Amino acid sequence: MAAESIINSRQKEALINGISTQVVCTVFSNHILVVLTQYGKIGTIISLLPDATSSDISKPMFTTKVLLGKDEALTHVYAKNLVTFVSQASGNRPVLLALALKEINIEGIKAMKEMIKSCQVW
């Protein structure tokens, strides 16, 4: 009889804009980890936290913070666009996003978001 894994994780690979893109979603007791890469590396790690001071608890504001890597304005925009729905769908749990992308455009963001949705473990 095979032992069941304590950590629930799913992964997927697809071509986005002609570039091999991998996503791995893993749920832990206090965070959800989403790794999205076109390099096979972790890259920049961004924390996405629901803001407890939001007046409407069903639609919280989110705070992003780069924990490792280049802290650029677009990194925060990408993080919020890619994984806000993950936090909301999991009851406003914090999300860690590891992002290593070669090319980003609006069509790519939409496709990556669908990849993340297909790996739902929360």
UniProtKB/TrEMBL annotation:
Keywords: Proteasome. GO terms for biological process: proteasome assembly. The keyword Cell membrane does not apply. GO terms for cellular component: proteasome complex. InterPro entries: Proteasome_assmbl_chp_3, Psm_Assembly_Chaperone. It comes from the Eukaryota. The keyword ATP-binding does not apply. It holds the Pfam family PAC3. This is Proteasome assembly chaperone 3. The lineage of its organism: Eukaryota, Metazoa, Chordata, Craniata, Vertebrata. The gene is PSMG3.
